[in-house]
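> call design_seq(struct)
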């Protein structure tokens, strides 16, 4: 993974010292809250319902054990002993005191971490496939690309005050695990006819109050052209993007209002101007970055201990079948650690759990961890012989829940329990759904099913691209939950279709139960996923299950 150099450390130290002085001015009254707001947002500090919240960047989701240990220390020393992993591969601390934030930033800087550009109308944390560098289907590790984009975009003088926030995602695999089509720029690694790797460039994706699937701007962009082309896209958006209405300021609206062909012409024109200015400097940078992402030295060992445990221990076997994914190296596996034990808050990890995961990474996983956009933690490189020992440690820490990809593996934003923008609760709904289907012992029979929950129209829980999406709204002071069906965050991305009227807080879990029961009755075989059954049958039978009173009245 990328290691900070002297410039990086000096840059962070200067930024943190600057913010420390700004905090002191806010505390002594020299700055009003309105004057302080843009300064704190530049450093990832929000003011939520009950306290400040610090959002820390985990670029492309990659961490080492020292960084995870430091996150645990920060949680204990300056927060309430836990952190919340988000859909942008960040971690949030929900209870810091303003005076302590500069110390938190300095502690992050000690291990090469920061909170820069985790907020504001700028280019946010660049995200990537959480299986990057390990996936069996990967064309090329996308993390060097993501790191190059991170360095280019950090404090870029032209892009600090864009019309609206700007998000970039990168995947190196044909199977999209980075939700690239729901980003302002999505980059998918592809090969041209000569077999050379490059990028399919997608623009104008996004969720929120106007969900849109991104459009292909370039079918193939050579790797050497990435930075000038990305700069061309953001430059065009910076000029064309609307500043009169923040709800229409994202690039998705710019693309929609101007048309993809016009945007393409403008970007290509700007790209032709910019390309000579880079003159290979970016490729020199990329070469140095790529050297830091070399694969670990994979060990050779017998997998006999794994085979024995798999056949003898049904609990271990269930966990492997659900939480372990094929690795590109023989004898290795990718482990997804669920931090969504039924009834717990999706995405929350205690400081003790962080330390357990850090130690496992040191002992068994080449000192590397990942945070997924689905709010779980990944050990990307694990030899199969070590899986029984890893599972035993995870069980002891309450981290061995075998539910990756199942109905309780729910994406949920913090909702009205924390967020000042939220209009309904997300966390209790997620907890109740997970607990209910655990009680019914149906999770594994249901199989792959993505439920995503947002507590407001801003869609931080990605509900639009859930197989089942739940949107919490305020209806005359009462929480109301709308259901969408058929969303998809992968390479076949789709925005879900609203099923009908919303449900009250105490009605939403029974509604989901009816919906899933209908799926189990309607599917052609246990192998037919919910999303596949929905695509085959359409909305009608699922709507009938959700609104039985409508069906009864019609009869």
């Amino acid at each position: 993974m990328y290691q900070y150099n002297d410039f990086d450390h000096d840059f962070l130290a200067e930024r943190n010292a600057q913010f420390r002085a700004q905090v002191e001015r806010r505390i002594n009254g020299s700055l009003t809250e309105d004057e302080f707001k843009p300064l704190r947002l530049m450093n990832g500090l929000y003011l939520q319902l009950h306290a400040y919240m610090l959002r820390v960047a985990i670029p492309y989701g990659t961490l080492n054990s020292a960084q995870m240990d430091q996150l645990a220390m920060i949680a204990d020393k300056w927060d309430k002993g836990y952190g919340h992993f988000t859909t942008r591969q960040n971690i949030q601390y929900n209870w810091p005191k303003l005076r302590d934030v500069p110390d938190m930033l300095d502690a992050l800087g000690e291990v090469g971490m920061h909170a820069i550009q985790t907020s504001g109308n700028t280019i946010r944390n660049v995200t990537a496939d959480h299986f990057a560098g390990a996936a069996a289907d990967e064309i090329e590790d996308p993390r060097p690309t993501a790191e190059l984009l991170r360095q280019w975009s950090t404090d870029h003088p032209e892009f600090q005050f864009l019309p609206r926030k700007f998000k970039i995602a990168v995947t190196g695999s044909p199977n999209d695990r980075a939700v690239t089509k729901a980003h302002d720029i999505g980059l998918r690694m592809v090969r041209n006819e000569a077999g050379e790797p490059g990028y399919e460039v997608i623009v104008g994706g996004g969720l929120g109050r106007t969900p849109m699937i991104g459009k292909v701007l370039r079918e193939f962009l050579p790797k050497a052209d990435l930075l000038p082309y990305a700069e061309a896209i953001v430059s065009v958006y910076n000029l064309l993007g609307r500043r009169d209405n923040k709800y229409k300021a994202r690039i998705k609206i710019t693309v929609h209002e101007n048309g993809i062909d016009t945007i393409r012409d403008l970007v290509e024109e700007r790209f032709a101007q910019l390309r000579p200015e880079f003159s290979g400097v970016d490729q020199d940078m990329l070469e140095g970055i790529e050297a830091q992402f070399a694969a670990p030295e994979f060990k050779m060992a017998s997998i006999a201990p794994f085979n024995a445990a798999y056949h003898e221990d049904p609990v271990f076997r269930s966990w492997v079948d659900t939480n372990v994914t094929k690795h590109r190296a023989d004898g290795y596996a990718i482990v997804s650690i669920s931090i969504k034990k039924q009834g717990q808050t999706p995405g929350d990890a205690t400081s003790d759990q962080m330390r357990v995961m850090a130690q496992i990474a040191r002992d068994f996983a080449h000192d590397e961890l990942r945070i997924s956009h689905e709010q779980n933690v990944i050990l990307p490189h694990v030899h199969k012989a070590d899986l029984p020992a890893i599972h035993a440690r995870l069980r002891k820490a309450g981290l061995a829940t075998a539910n990756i990809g199942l109905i309780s593996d729910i994406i949920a934003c913090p909702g009205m329990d924390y967020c000042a923008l939220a209009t309904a609760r997300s966390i209790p709904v997620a907890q109740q759904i997970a607990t209910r289907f655990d009680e019914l012992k149906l999770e594994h029979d249901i199989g792959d099913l993505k439920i995503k929950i947002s507590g407001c129209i801003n869609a931080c829980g990605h509900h639009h691209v859930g197989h089942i999406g739940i949107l919490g709204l305020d209806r005359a002071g009462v929480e109301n939950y709308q259901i969408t069906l058929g969303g998809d965050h992968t390479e076949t991305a789709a925005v879900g279709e609203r099923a009908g009227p919303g449900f009250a807080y105490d009605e939403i879990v029974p509604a989901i139960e009816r919906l899933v029961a209908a799926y189990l009755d309607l599917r052609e075989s246990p192998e037919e996923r919910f999303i596949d059954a929905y695509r085959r049958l359409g909305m009608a039978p699922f709507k009938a299950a959700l609104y039985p009173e409508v069906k009864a009245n019609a009869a």
